[in-house]
Amino acid sequence: MLFTSTLGRHPVIAELLEAAARFAAWVVVDMVLDRVMYPVGSLLLKCITFGRYPGYRTSDNARLLISIFPFVVLLVGVTLWHL
User: Fold this and answer.
1) Based on C-alpha coordinates, what's the Rg of the chain?
2) How far apart are CA 76 and CA 62, in angstroms?
3) In terms of Cα–Cα distance, which of 37, 39, 47 is closest to 72?
4) pLDDT grade for 6, boundaries at 50, 70 and 90
């Protein structure tokens, strides 16, 4: 538990605070992936596939993969740079 040390007397409040912190972190990560990383990944994939992918209608799973793609490109680039 994240907040047990500060609110050890009330485990219910500690669990509620931890759930709120997890939810806030999930919202921030989702917002960053959807608003920042999706356009970058979409641009990269459009450049690589000469505009064929991604299309206008993509599923939620495809949006997630497109959002993660810049991280993969960065990881591969850093790995190749250090070889």
Assistant:
1) 19
2) 20
3) 37
4) low
